[in-house]
Every structure is written in C-alpha cells, then in structure tokens.
What we know:
Elements: E1 11-12, H1 19-35, H2 47-54, H3 58-83, H4 88-107, H5 112-129, H6 133-140, H7 147-176, H8 180-205, E2 208-209, H9 222-230, H10 232-250, H11 254-260, H12 266-279, H13 281-295, H14 297-317, H15 325-346, H16 349-352, H17 360-371, H18 378-388, H19 398-435
Amino acid sequence: MSASTPSRNGELTYDQISAGRRWFILILASIGSSIIYAPAYLKAVFYDPLQKALGVTNTELGAVFGAYAITALICYLPSGIIADKVRMRTLSSVGFISTAILTGVYAMLPSLALLYVVFICMGITTIFIWWGVRYKLVRLVSKEDEYPKRIGLSYGIYGVAGLLIGLVSTAIVAMVGTNLNLGVSIYLWFLAGLIMLLGILSWLFIPKFADEIKSDGSGFNLSEFVSAFRNPVVWIAAISLFFVYFFYTGVTYTTPYMTGILGASLAVTTIIANIRNYGITLISGPAFGFIANRFKPSRVIVAGSLAFIVALLALMILPEKSSMVVVALILVVLLGFIANGSFSVVSAQLTEGKVPLHYFGAATGLLSIIGFLPDTFSSTWFGAIMDSHTDTAGAVSASAYQMIFMILIISAVLAAVSSLVLFFYLRNKKRAAIDEPSTPASA
Length: 443
C-alpha cells in the first residue's frame, strides 16, 4: 500500500494526511476549544446583561453555572476514557452539534428550571463528549517532536478566536443599545450557528486516524489511578491548581465592578473583558511558559500569585470615581495577564515533579477533578455576597466587591504557599536522592 493510500477501513496515518488538512484540523480544534465553552461561560463577559435578560438573581445565576460545573467535575475522568474508545470525528461533531442545539434553547432565554437542564446537558456535551478532543486531535496531526510547538500555537489560535467572537459581542451590544434581552439572545444565536458549523466541518474534514482507538483494553487501568493517587506531587499540584483556578476565574468579577462601581460603559467593559479573557492569552501563555521553562513552574506560580495580590490590592484602594476608569481598566488587563499566565503553567508542575508517563493521564484527571472544584461553588458564593449587598434599586454596593476581592487575595496567598511547598518538597527529594548512594550499604 502506498503512503497516500488509506487502509481498507478508511483509516489514515499522519503521512497520509496532507499538510493543509493537518493545519485545518489544528485550527478547527483550537477555535472549537474557545467557542464551545463560550455559551456556558457567557457571564464572564456579559454578566450584567445576562443576569437582567434571564431575570434571575446573582445567586441563581451562580447556581446555574454551579450545576454545569458539578456535571463537568463528574465527567472529567470518563471523558479521557471515551477519547480513547471513540473516534475523534464522532466525538467532535457530536459534541459541537449537541452543544449548538442547547445554545439555541439558551438563546430563547428560558425559565430558571429549563436553564438548569440546559447547563447540566452542556456539562455532558462539552466535557464528557468534547473535553478530550482538542489535545488528542493536536497530537494526531503532529509528529512527536512537533507537539509542544503545536499545542503552544493552539493556545494562540484559541486566544485569537475568543477575541474575535468577543468583538462580535461588543458590536451586538452597541447595536441593540438598551435592549439587553435582544442583545443576549442575538449573541447566543450567533454562537449556536458558529458551533453548529464547527460540528459539520468536523464530520467532513476529520478523518479516521490509524491507531486512534485503543483496542487492547488499556483505556481504563485502575492501577494507574492508584499510582497517581499515591504520588504527593499530584496532590500538591492539584491543590495549587485549585487556588490558582479560583483567582483565575474570580477575576471575572472585575467586569460588574467596572460598570456598577466605577461607572464604565457596557461597551468598554465588554471589550476589556474579552481582552482579559482571550486577547491577553496570546502574550501571557507563551511568556509564562518561557519563564517557567527556565525557572521552574512552581517558582513562576509563586511570583505570579504575589504579583496578582499586589495588582488586586491596587484596584481595591483605587478611588471609586469615573476619573479612575482608565487606571482601573489597565489594572484589570494586568490582572488578566497574571491570572491567565499562572493558570497556563500550573499543570506543568506535574512534569516538574517528574510524574511518570505511564500514569500521567490519570494524574491529569485527578488534577482536573480537584483543580476545577471552585467552579462548583465560587459563582454561587460570590452571587450570594452580591445579592446580600444589593440595595432596593438593584445596585450592588462596593463592599460586596471588596469582600470578593479579599477572598481572591487569600486564594492567591494559598496558591503561592502550595507551589512553594512543591518546590521545597522536590528540592529535598533531589537532595535525598543525591545523598542516598553515599550511604554505606549494610553487610
């Protein structure tokens, strides 16, 4: 069989896929990883309009997202297993198309009860079905020595895609003016159509890859999870991720703070929120990755957490005047840069701790379960804080945001401490390994 001829069952190897098609699949997976989660995380950019359009309280909006997060938490481990058992073309197309349908229901601004159903189902379609697609697809269209470069490029494409759809959201806000219900609905329909298109393209252009499905029964191995569970590096890295992810997601509350307290316009805050969430990733991820590669991820996280604390304290003591909006916007972008950069390298602590490759996947699963736990309660908690500090006119007081920001500062302190613990644990372990050969052997 020639290098360009597919196998009898239509499977293609890396060499049998054209370079153009490999690049298209890389871009598709990267764009998809940005857009498929946009509906579920819409409150990060559209907080005030979304809350008002849905007619829910801050607590209820947080609880709806909490339902998504709990579903996601349950699905992280099995998503890795299903990625080894089902073809990428099937998972990608089904994940996109089913999420697009749910986003269409979301665009109708349904009742609170139906919202819970939509978000729980999104937890299944975006995590159980699609979570394992991006990294495996990037690996399948890359040679082994190309993967680090390609996954870095994938993050760059992710940021560009998020920024572009963010600009669309800003245009919609400007177009509809005060009709927030219409603006939110139009944007969700736009996302639904885009995600549906990605699903169709997935089915048309993602091939059947040779050897993409494990047939030897090794998709689930309990001993791998036991090994990961017993490794202190995995636990310390997971705790570190928990606190880094907590302040990484918590920084989104600077959006309603800018509009409600500092009086920034909705259009301006939407642009800044998109830059903070996506645009800054183009710089922060590669920058923090380069530094972490030279100085170790644990050290970088300690430094990043401390820098986050300083920047957030500066925002907190800033006078609550409209004249301070420009300074506040700069600080918000800086906070996004630090939070995005710290989050992008936190999982690299597994490689810093030399977690063995044969249970690295299991370690990543455990890392995800613990590290992403804040999604299950932080939105509800912060929403309740905001509701308890809301006046009769519906305005949230500055004290609510000060309380939320203090919680984020405590989280950053604990992130720095946990990464510092990992750094000293690994240093002591290395010293012990050096000293061990010099110990006289017993007779």
